C-alpha cells in the first residue's frame, strides 16, 4: 500500500487490494473512495468486493469510477461532496492515484489558490500543472502549447504500438518517438487460450513494459484523455499536453464486461471464467480439470471482437481434455454465439464442424449472453433470429466461459478520429486516417474490415512504418495492407486448423500446402503455435524484425 498524503482530509494511492483495507483502518483512515472502474485491468478486485472488505474493516466506502484520462467536472464535484460528507481522513485510489489527485485538484479549485493545489499535489508526487491550465482556461485544457513534443507519438504499447516503434527505429534510428501507455505489464494475449487449455503457464505470457519499449523511445506512462488533431496535440490524464508531428493510434479495444448484467461480480468464481483475462485463464483450466459432469457453456458476443476464434478455441481444448479423461459423455456442451456462423471464412468451417460433432457440442446461433447470476449458476440469453421477434432463454451451467462484448475505448469513440460507430477511420490499404493525413492507426482499434488479431498487427506495423517514413521524406504512401489475419484454431491438444485470410475472406497461406494445409487440422500448425509464434512475437515482432511480414508495395499503374 503506497499512500501519498495530499491534505489533512485526503490521501491517495495506486490500486489497493481487499487485504490493504485493514491496514488502512490501522493507519487512521475512516473512509475509502474507489475511482477506478471495475474490470479496467486484471490486477484489481471489483468495487463490490472492496466495499465488503471496507465494511468488514469498519470503513465507509464510495464508488466513483473515472474512465482513464476522462475526468469530468461533474465527477470532480461529486468527489468534493463525498470528501465533505464522509468521515475523514479519506483514502482514494485508482490505477496510479493520478485520477484521484486530479479530482481533488478540480474539486478544490474554487476554495484554494492554484499555487497551493500545485504544491500539495507535487509534494505527493503528482504533476497537476495541466490541471491548473484547465482551471485557468475555464474548464478546458488549452492545446496550442504542450508539455512535450515528438516527431512521432504512438498511443498504445500493445503488440501494434511496440512493433511500430521498433520498425520505425529500424528505418530511422534518430527519429524522436514517444509511446504513451499507462500499463506496467505487456501481455502476449494469443497465449491465454493455451493457458486456459493447460499448455502454457500464465507468467510466460507477461513481461514488464519497460523491458520491451525499444531503446531510445520515450515511454510516457499515462492515459490519454482526448485528441486535438487540429493542434497536433494529445491531452493526457492530469491534463498534460503532448504535441506531435505524426501520430500513430493503436490502444487496442475495450473489453466491456459490465455490459453483461452480473458478470463483473461473478468473474473468477461460481464457475464463470474467461481466457480474455490474464488472471482468469488459469481458472479456466482449473474448472476444466475439476469438471466430470454437468453443463459447460461457451459464449461469443456480437462482432467485432479480437481473435474471433478464441471463444470456440476454449471450447475445443476443454472438450478435448474431457475426452482424454473419459468424462466427455457426462458433459453437455453449449456454444452460444450471437452471430449466425461458426467461423466467418467458409473454407475452414468443414474441419471445425467435424470437431463440433466429435465433442457433441450444441451450436446455438443468434444467442447472446445478457445477464449472469453466478451464485445460482444461471445465465440469461437474448435470441435474435432473422425474421423473428427477439426472445430470452435461461440456461443453467456448471462452468461458463465468457467472451465479453468489445468496443473501441471511450476516449477513441468520442474523439474526432472516430467513424460513426466509434472506430478510428482509416484507409484500409495505407492505414492512414481519412481526414487527418499525419495520423495512422493499426491493430484492433481501427475500422478496416479485417480480423482483429496479433498476426494482423504484425503485418500492419511495417506498413505503417514504411508509410510514415515516406511521408517524412515528402513521398506518397509506398506500402499497403491486404487485410491479412491469422487465427490458429486449437481444435485439440496437438492439432490446429490454421486459418489465414485477408480482405473478403481471401485465403492467404504463409506456408505451402504440403507443409501446412490450413483447412485441415495439423500437428505442424500446433508446433507453430506452441513453439514458434511466442519467440517470433517477443524476439521478432517487438524488436522490429519483420519475419513473415514484409510490407507489400503499392504498385502505381503507368499513365
From TrEMBL:
One Gene Ontology molecular-function label: FAD binding
GO biological process, one term: sulfide oxidation, using sulfide:quinone oxidoreductase
All residue ranges annotated as the FAD/NAD(P)-binding domain in the record: 151-263
Highest taxon above the source species: Bacteria
Cofactor(s) needed: FAD
Keywords, comma-separated and alphabetical: FAD, Flavoprotein, Oxidoreductase, Quinone, Transit peptide
Keyword Flavoprotein part of the UniProt annotation: yes
Name under which the protein is recorded: TIGR01244 family phosphatase
Organism: Stappia albiluteola
Species classification: Bacteria, Pseudomonadati, Pseudomonadota, Alphaproteobacteria, Hyphomicrobiales
Amino acid at each position: 500500500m503506497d499512500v501519498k498524503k495530499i491534505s489533512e482530509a485526503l490521501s491517495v494511492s495506486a490500486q489497493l487490494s481487499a487485504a490493504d483495507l485493514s491496514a488502512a483502518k490501522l493507519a487512521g483512515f475512516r473512509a475509502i473512495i474507489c475511482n477506478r472502474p471495475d474490470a479496467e485491468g486484471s490486477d484489481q478486485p471489483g468495487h463490490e468486493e472492496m466495499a465488503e472488505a471496507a465494511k468488514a474493516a469498519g470503513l465507509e466506502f464510495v464508488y466513483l469510477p473515472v474512465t482513464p484520462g476522462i475526468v469530468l467536472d461533474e465527477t470532480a464535484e461529486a468527489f468534493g461532496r463525498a470528501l465533505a460528507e464522509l468521515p475523514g481522513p479519506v483514502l482514494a485510489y485508482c490505477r496510479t492515484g493520478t485520477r484521484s489527485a486530479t479530482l481533488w485538484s478540480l474539486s478544490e479549485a474554487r476554495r484554494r489558490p492554484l499555487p497551493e493545489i500545485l504544491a500539495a499535489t507535487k509534494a505527493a508526487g503528482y504533476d497537476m500543472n495541466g490541471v491548473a491550465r484547465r482551471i485557468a482556461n475555464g474548464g478546458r485544457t488549452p492545446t496550442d502549447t504542450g508539455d512535450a513534443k515528438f516527431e512521432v507519438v504512438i498511443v498504445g504499447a500493445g503488440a501494434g504500438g511496440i512493433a511500430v516503434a521498433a520498425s520505425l527505429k529500424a528505418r530511422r534510428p534518430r527519429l524522436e518517438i514517444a509511446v504513451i501507455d499507462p500499463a506496467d505489464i505487456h501481455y502476449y494475449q494469443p497465449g491465454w487460450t493455451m493457458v486456459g487449455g493447460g499448455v502454457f503457464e500464465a507468467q510466460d505470457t507477461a513481461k514488464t513494459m519497460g523491458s520491451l519499449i525499444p531503446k531510445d523511445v520515450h515511454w510516457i506512462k499515462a492515459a490519454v484523455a482526448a485528441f486535438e488533431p487540429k493542434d497536433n496535440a494529445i491531452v493526457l490524464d492530469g491534463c498534460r499536453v503532448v504535441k506531435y508531428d505524426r501520430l500513430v493510434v493503436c490502444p487496442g479495444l475495450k473489453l466491456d464486461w459490465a455490459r453483461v448484467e452480473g458478470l463483473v461480480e461473478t468473474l473468477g468464481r461460481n464457475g464463470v471464467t474467461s481466457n480474455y483475462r490474464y488472471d482468469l485463464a488459469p481458472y479456466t483450466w482449473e474448472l476444466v480439470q475439476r469438471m466430470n459432469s454437468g453443463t459447460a457453456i461457451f459464449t461469443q458476443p456480437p462482432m467485432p471482437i479480437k481473435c474471433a476464434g478464441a471463444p470456440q478455441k476454449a471450447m475445443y481444448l476443454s472438450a478435448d481434455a474431457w475426452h482424454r479423461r473419459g468424462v466427455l459423455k457426462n458433459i453437455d456442451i453449449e456454444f452460444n454465439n450471437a452471430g449466425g456462423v461458426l467461423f466467418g471464412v467458409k473454407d475452414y468451417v468443414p474441419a471445425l464442424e467435424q470437431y463440433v460433432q466429435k465433442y457433441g457440442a450444441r451450436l446455438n446461433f443468434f444467442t447472446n449472453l445478457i445477464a449472469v447470476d453466478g451464485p445460482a449458476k444461471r445465465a440469461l440469453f437474448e435470441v435474435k433470429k432473422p425474421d423473428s421477434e427477439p426472445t430470452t432463454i435461461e440456461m443453467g451451467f456448471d462452468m461458463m466461459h465468457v467472451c465479453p462484448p468489445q468496443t473501441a475505448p471511450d476516449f477513441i469513440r468520442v474523439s474526432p478520429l472516430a467513424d460513426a460507430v466509434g472506430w478510428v477511420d482509416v484507409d484500409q490499404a495505407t492505414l492512414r486516417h481519412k481526414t487527418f493525413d499525419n495520423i495512422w492507426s493499426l491493430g484492433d482499434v481501427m475500422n478496416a474490415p479485417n480480423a482483429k488479431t496479433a498476426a494482423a498487427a504484425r503485418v500492419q506495423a511495417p506498413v505503417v512504418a514504411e508509410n510514415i517514413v515516406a511521408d517524412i521524406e515528402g513521398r506518397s504512401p509506398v506500402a499497403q495492407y491486404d487485410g491479412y489475419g491469422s487465427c490458429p484454431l486449437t481444435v485439440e491438444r496437438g492439432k490446429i486448423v490454421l486459418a489465414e485470410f485477408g480482405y473478403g475472406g481471401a485465403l492467404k497461406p504463409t506456408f505451402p500446402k504440403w507443409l501446412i494445409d490450413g483447412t485441415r487440422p495439423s500437428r505442424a500448425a500446433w508446433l507453430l503455435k506452441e513453439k514458434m509464434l511466442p519467440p517470433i512475437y517477443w524476439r521478432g515482432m517487438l524488436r522490429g524484425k519483420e519475419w513473415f511480414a514484409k510490407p507489400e508495395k503499392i504498385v502505381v499503374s503507368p499513365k
